[in-house]
Every structure is written in C-alpha cells, then in structure tokens.
Amino acid sequence: MALAIVLDLSGCDRDLVAPWIEVTEISPREIEVGDRFELRGSGFPQGRVAHLTFRGALHRPGEKATGASIELDAVVMSSERIEAAFTDAFEERFCGRGDAALHTTFRGEVELAFASTTPGAPPLVGVLRGVLLDVRPPALRSDQQSARAKEGARVLAFLGINDGMNAGITANEPAPRGLPIQGVRPGSPADRAGIQVGDVLAEVDGVVVANASDVLPASSRTVTLLVRHADGAGEETKTLPLSGYASERIPIEYGPAIVIVWLALASLVLLVVPLPALLSAAELRVASRLRRTSAEALVHAVTGKGASAIAYFLALIFVGTFALGSYVISAELDGAMLLVITMGLLATARATAKSGNFKALRAAIGALGACLALALPFAGMIALEGALSLGELVRSQGALPWEFSAAREPAALVLATAYFGALGWLIHQRSEEPTDTRAYAVERVGVLLACALGAAVFFGGWQLPDAMGSHQLATKLAGALLFLVKSCTIQWLIVMTAPLDREQNKFVGAPFMAPNREGAMNRPPTTSKRLVSLSGLGFALVALSRHTTQTSASFRMAWGIAVIFSITLLTARFAFRVRRSMLRPLPSASPDAILVDQINAGMEAAQTN
Q: How far is CA 122 from CA 110, 391, 493, in A?
C-alpha cells in the first residue's frame, strides 16, 4: 500500500501503480440478454459507481477476430461483489445488430475503475485478465439459423468429421461442452491431423462451439480447431487446411475489389448517361422555387406560422420521445401506432380541406386508401427484419449510412422508394388549396410523423456510433436530436418538390408522375398501380432473401457503400444542375410559362436521347 501511494504521488503511469482493488472472478461465463453478471474481488468502495471496460477480441463464426473496447457502468453490491445487467444495448456491442448478430466469444481483460474522490488523483483500478465470455444473441430467424447450420455441416463434412447430430443441420440446441466427434472419415483432413472418435470439438477459430452453426471458419484457407481429447489427455489446438473448400464467404476477400468496380460503374452511369426526363423536370422545379422563395418562406412551408408552428414543434417533441426510452406505449405497438396516427392525421387534413360532409367523407376515404401504400412497405420491413418492435427495427441498423437498412438490403431500398414515393404522391395529389389553415397544420404534423417512421425503419433512426452501450441522458438526447434532424430533412426534401399552387400543379407532380404531351399530370390510379407494384417487388425480394443463404457482413457492407456513393453522387449532380439553372438569366416572360417551356424542352431532349 505504501509503495502504491508513493508511486501515485510521484505521477508515475497508472499501469505501474499497484492496484488498490482486486478483481478475482467474473460469472457467469455464458450469458445472454436478461441475465446479470457479477464481478468478485475485494476492496470495492461501497456507494460508488463502478466503470467496467472490456478490452480484447471478439470471435464470431465466419468472421475474423476484431478488437473491442466495451464500457458500461455497474452497481457495487458490497465490498466484494459488483453486479450489472446484461441489456439489449450491451448485447449489441458484443454480437452485432439485428440479422447481423452472431454468437460471440470475447477474449481479453476486464478493467474495473472508480473515479477518485481527490481532485487530480488517478482512479482506483483493478484488472482481471484472461477473461473468456460467451455471449449469445436473442433467437434468430429460423431460416438464418438453418442456413448457418447447413454451412457448418458442409465444413464438418469437408473436414471429415461426423458430429453425431444429423450433421448439425437440424440440431441447433447448444451442447454443454462442444460437439462430440462420433466419426472421422479415413484420409480426411481431420484424420491426418490426428482427431479421433470420442474427442470433442470445443472451439473453431476462437469461437466456443455449441452447435453446427458455430463451425464457420474465419478464412477460406485454414481453420483452427481446439479439440478436447476423450482419454483425459487435455486439449490440443490443430490447424487444418481448407484447400478446395468452396465457401460462400469467399467474396469477403474480394469485398474491396467489388466496391471499386461498383463505384466505377456508378460514376460512369450517373455522370455520363443522361438523366430521365422526370429528374430533369424536378431540377427545374426546385430551381424555380428557390429563385422565387426566401429562406423564411421555406421554413414556414415546413413548420407553418403561429398556432400551426406550435403544433409542429409539439409533434417534434412527441417524435423525440421514441429515442429516449425502450418504447412509448408498447415495444410491439409503437411502430403500428405511429403509422395509424399518421394515416388518421392525413385523412383528417383532407377532410378538413373540403366543404360539405359528403365531400369531406369522400376525401378522407380517398386519403386512407392512398395511405395503404405507406402500410405495405412498413409491413415488408417487418417481414424482412423479422421484428415487430420499432426499437428492434432501429437496432438492426447501424449509425453509418451504409449500415442503414435502405443501403445494405436491396429489398429495403425498394420498399423505401415505395414508402416515400407513396408519401410524396399523397401530398402532391392535392388539387386545390384548403380553405381552412387547420388542414395545413394537421397535414404538416402527419407528414412529419410519416417521415419519422420512415427514418426509423429505413435510415437508422436514432442510432449513434459507439454509444449503444451507454444509457446516459446526454446520449439519449443526442440520439433524439439526430432522429429529428433525419425526419425534418426528409420532410423538407418532400416539401421542396411539392407543387406551389393549382396552376403549377398542371405541370409539376409527385415522384412517378410525369407530364404528358398536353402538360397535364398522369392520372393517380396509374401512379398507385406503380407504387403497389413496387411494394410487390419489395415483398418478392424479401421472400427471396428468406430462401437464400445469408450473405457475409463484408459483402453487405460493400453493397451499402456502393448504394450510398451512388445516392451521394446523384445528389451532388442534382444540386449542381439546380444551381446552374438558378444562375441562368431568365427572359422577360412569366415564371410559370418559363417553367413550362423548360420542362417541355427537357422532356423532348430526353425522348430524343
């Protein structure tokens, strides 16, 4: 103790200071969500907050080991025991999110620290080394588990090992001490490595084996097995070659090459190939609006004025509450509740804009029918992710753009296009200005809630990078702010493309609606059929993904990066062309006539190309 005090006062590095507390054990070593784990030792100061840091490597089936530093706070129960709850957020730090979550074996050390009560003094630190923690995510979809088990069975068959569990294809219940080896094929890699009948396969590339889905090598070249001998001779590590084994994970090693090829193709297509006439018309539309509209008017177009703005900001507070806790009403009902409220508000706005009970009822029914196009993509995402909870849909995504569902899943990208296309179509199909300003206020709130639901389901919601394990209020507020920024940005983009008035509505419409030769908009039924067909394509991709082997995490990241790059490049080109249109001098003609001529010229040029 005296040596520690002297070194502490002399300002030596913390690693040289003898610990004032001692950590001797962590239990249990196998843990899942809902469990509580304990640290035992001595010298724990009671009444203080314990800060735990897990430093080491995460081993997952089929993936290379990655370094990790995971932090959380724990409760001091006594001077010899500290207890912490293993929550969903903490489990995500170990296993990953959503469909990407995998059984994970952590190897490393646990550092226990208490902030010093003396200003400027180092914290009290204790370290437990050689920690092995086996973490299992919540139940995965049956098709995913079956696909991974089949792949594990292929690995075992290639190695020449019979685990005695129907090749591991249908037996997914964890074995208490690994997979028992009940047969070894003569001349196989396992036989040449000296593996014998009666041995137990305990680990594969650092992952503790419980069933066949854990037998996925981290490389397509070699696999390292930890074998526990049946004759009591202890354990032995063996490295077996995988030459000739055709694994679906081979594209992992070609991920960078795939990204480069996709980025080159995207650059060629988006920068050289002429854009469709609809996008050219949208560029002219946005340029015309920016030229004639002030920044204040653009803000008021989203928030409204007076009582409308107050209602809008109250809706913002309501949206932010979804990011502050596990749920608002119920974990399984939050998403459906948000969708129902959105549909009710949009239908109410259309009914309020009409005079007369019959016209109001007809408008409300029409709006509800159009809102069903919003419900279809939402149902598709529930089927794709296999989760009804809005919080789980958000947690299945990451904080980085290429980790969003709309970026990493082709089916989600199609469903997102259908969702926001339906929302834009619903707004743009308004044929007249409402006589009551309350209709605009109600519609703004409804559109905000629809954009918030879309941001949560398709664009990561309130996920923050490297902050998932924290429950501090500041982190939750930051996530809520990010969620509001995403929702408001999407709403602003939709409003920017909305028609300015009835006269302009003859020429400017929603996504999937293009002017015909007479300048009038295509009929709404044509647009609704396109949106429903797009949703049907999304459902078909969802069904296809359920019957194919899950792609690797690296391949999905490569796909996500390519999608985000394409969207960014397309947005940059769109912004450049809008600015160029704004700087172009206008002849002495009315703005509406100029806009009509520009759109028609763009349509004729596109048809000529």
A: 18, 38, 50
How many Å apart are CA 592 and CA 139, to the nearest integer? 58
Among candidate residues 65, 100, 92, the one with its CA nearest the CA of residue 385 = 100
CA separation for the pair 149, 144 (Å, rounded)? 9
Question: Of 168-172, 179-183, 577-581, where does the model show the most confidence?
Answer: 179-183
Residues 6 or more apart whose CB falls under 8 angstroms from that of 379 comprise: none
Query: Once rounded to an integer, what is the mean pLDDT over residues 36-43?
Result: 87
The pLDDT value recorded for residue 154 is 85
| Phi, psi for 47 (deg, rounded to 5) | 80, 10
For residue 367, the surrounding DSSP H or E stretch is helix 357-385
The secondary structure element, H or E, covering residue 385 is helix 357-385
Greater pLDDT, 75 or 501 = 75
Distance CA 370, CA 343 (A): 9
Strand intervals (E) in 218-281: 222-228, 235-241
Amino acid, single-letter form, for residue 423: L
DSSP summary character for residue 121: P
Q: How far is CA 261 from CA 222, 264, 272, 413, in A?
A: 28, 5, 16, 20
Average confidence (pLDDT) over 511-538: 56
Burial group, residue 92, by CB count within 10 angstroms (0-12, 13-18, 19+):
buried
**155-181 burial, b for 16+ CB within 10 Å, e for fewer?**
bbebbbbbbebebbbebbebbeebbbb
What residue type is 429 in one-letter code? Answer: Q
The rounded distance, in Å, linking the Cα atoms of 184 and 192 is 10
Longest dimension (CA), the chain: 96
| Complete DSSP assignment for 37-77 | EEEEEE-PPTTSEEEEEEEEEEE-TTS--EEEEEEEEEEEE
And the tokens for 443? 């519609």
The better pLDDT of the pair 230, 257 is held by 230
- Omega before residue 276 within 30° of 0, cis: no
> CB–CB of 124/114 below 8 Å?
yes
**Is 106 a residue whose pLDDT tops 90?**
yes
Give CA–CA dist 352/308, Å, rounded: 15
Cβ 520 vs Cβ 600: under 8 Å: no
The secondary structure of 277-318 as a DSSP string is HHHHHHHHHHHHHHHH--HHHHHHHHH-STHHHHHHHHHHHH
Asked whether the predicted pLDDT for residue 142 surpasses 50, the reply is yes
**Residue holding tokens 């016209």?**
359
Cβ neighbours around 337 below 10 Å, total: 16
Mean of pLDDT values over 261-289:
68
Helix (H, G, I), strand (E, B) or coil at 28: coil
- Region 467-482: what's the mean pLDDT? 73
Tokens 């594969």, located at residue: 204
Q: What's the mean pLDDT in 430-456?
A: 76
pLDDT at residue 407, as a whole number:
86
In the DSSP assignment, the letter for residue 238 is E
The CA-atom distances, in angstroms, between 295 and each of 105, 214, 441 are 53, 56, 19
3-state secondary structure 4-18: HHHHHHCCCCHHHCC
Q: Please give the model's pTM, rounded to 2 decimal places.
A: 0.63
The residues, any chain, with a CB within 8 Å of residue 497's CB and separated by 6 or more, are 282, 285, 286, 424, 428, 508, 510, 511
